[in-house]
């Protein structure tokens, strides 16, 4: 199976944990509430958890308005945290751990 944490610049309050089965079909599409539209570059998978990174590089409408081609910026107001999502759990099951911004 293949796992992904996905996001959309149009819907900045959600991430999605998606799982595709060996047949290529989506077998899981779990929404994860977040704030500020974080850019998620990576995730990690363990036998029990999907590790979700919610870090302070977030979507910036002001960057778009000012003509920047990359609409994500460092956001001092967004705390850094790592989420432990049980592989078959829901967003309510995530254990969030605050971390120092990096």
Please summarize what this structure is.
This protein has 102 residues and is mainly beta.
Provide a descriptive summary of the structure in words:
- With 102 residues, the chain is mainly β.
- The chain has one domain.
- The protein has one helix and nine strands, in the order ββββββαβββ.
- It has a four-stranded antiparallel beta sheet, with no helix packed on it.
- The mean pLDDT is 94.
Gyration radius, in Å: 14 Å
**Biggest sheet, in brief?**
4 strands, antiparallel
Average per-residue pLDDT, rounded, comes to 94
- H/E element order: EEEEEEHEEE
- The helix-and-strand class reads mainly beta
Low-confidence stretches: none
**Share of residues in helices:** under 10%
Distance between the termini: 30 Å
* Tally of helical segments: 1
- Secondary structure tally: strands: 9
How many discrete structural domains?
1
Estimate the global geometry from the Cα principal axes. globular
Q: In percent, how much strand structure appears in the residues?
A: over 45%
Arrangement of strands in the largest sheet: 4-5-8-9
Cofactor: Fe(2+)
GO molecular function, one term: carotenoid dioxygenase activity
Family: Belongs to the carotenoid oxygenase family.
Binding site for Fe cation: 41
Relevant terms:
metal ion binding, mainly beta, 4-stranded antiparallel β-sheet, 9 strands, 102 residues, globular, Carotenoid_Oase, 5% helix, oxidoreductase
Q: What secondary-structure arrangement, pairings included, does this model have?
A:
Elements: E1 2-8, E2 11-20, E3 26-33, E4 43-45, E5 49-54, E6 57-59, H1 61-65, E7 72-74, E8 81-86, E9 95-98
């Amino acid at each position: 199976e293949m796992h992904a944490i996905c996001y959309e610049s149009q819907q900045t309050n959600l991430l999605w944990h998606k799982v595709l089965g060996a047949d290529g079909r989506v077998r899981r599409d779990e929404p994860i509430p977040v704030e500020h539209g974080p850019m998620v570059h990576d995730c990690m998978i363990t036998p029990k958890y999907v590790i979700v990174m919610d870090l302070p590089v977030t979507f910036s409408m002001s960057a778009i308005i000012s003509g920047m081609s990359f609409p994500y910026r460092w956001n001092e107001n967004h705390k850094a945290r790592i989420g432990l999502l049980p592989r078959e759990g829901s967003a309510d099951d995530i254990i969030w751990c605050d971390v120092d911004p990096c």
